[in-house]
# Entry
Amino acid sequence: MRASVLFEQGKPLSVEDLELEPPRRGEVLVRMAASGVCHSCLHAADGSWKGVPVPIVLGDEGAGVVEDVGPGVDGLQPGDHVILSWAPTCGRCHYCVIGRPNLCERRQPGRGVLPDGTTRMSLRGRAVYHYGHVATYASSTVVHESCAIKIDTTVPIDLAALIGCSVMTGVGAVINTAAVEPGASIAVFGVGGVGLNVVQGGALVAAHPVIAVDVKAAKLEHARALGATHTIDASREDAVAAIRRLTRLGADYTFVAVGDKRAVSQAIEAVAPGGTCVLIGVPETGATVPMDVRPLVTAERVIRGCSYGSARTREDLPRLANLYLAGKLKIDQLVTRRYDLDEANEAFRALAAGELARGLIVF
Ligand SMILES: [Zn+2]
Ligand SMILES: [Zn+2]
# Structure
């Protein structure tokens, strides 16, 4: 199997031929069709997130075709089209049974292993880690069965990759985490791959206004095409004042879809009394943000985290795929550029430079 491997944080990836063990009990082998290039992988590669185990195959947003299934796998067979989920679920831990499977206790965040604590990839006898349980920058990958979610074969499989992380996270932040009501105002800080999906999630549930905030004019333009009713260029004007001008009291919901501390501070400040600030982007390890406690307390403002759009993956990933087929979600427009596997470094460069909504590695 060919994969793009990170040997050291801060260094470029290189394409290698890796050994891939067959799937064990409860696992499936997936031949990758496409993988999105996600900002979380860029953070892992450039070293802004510390402690990523190496060597590792990055990539947490992918789709492909099941090629083989291990013993005990129920409901998947070779030929099935699947979206990969980076959040395994066991169906029986506390969080799975209370309906919050995105917090499943079997997740091994940051450890680079499958839910059983081991790896299936190696290079000349040395273990190679799996990023986000799925390691999608690879021609084939072995994942836990709960990380392979079957979808209809009529969904274009390359575009389906994006549903596995950025679409689920952004749209899910609106419809699951915040459960935004029709007519509520929202402001989205950072309209890259995830933020654009918060914008289209807002349009989907008839939020109004849908305000996009970014420092790049091209991204704001893109946000308009996906449903933003207003845009604020935070490099030119005070985003908090502009949001107050548009909403009078502040936005009912603010979303931070970028790992930036200043955006977090502004998004907390721009929330209306009784409103909620949803934090999606993960800043560098150890980042802290000072906050004025009084306005939170006296006006019952809420700050909450959002992991994977509070996904209930078995339900939500096929649901989002169906919304795409019904013409209610845009995915084609999210793909800025397509790359070969050996162009992952160039895709990271373009992502860091703010040139991409989504880069897509196609196999
Ligand atoms: Zn991702
Ligand atoms: Zn669980």
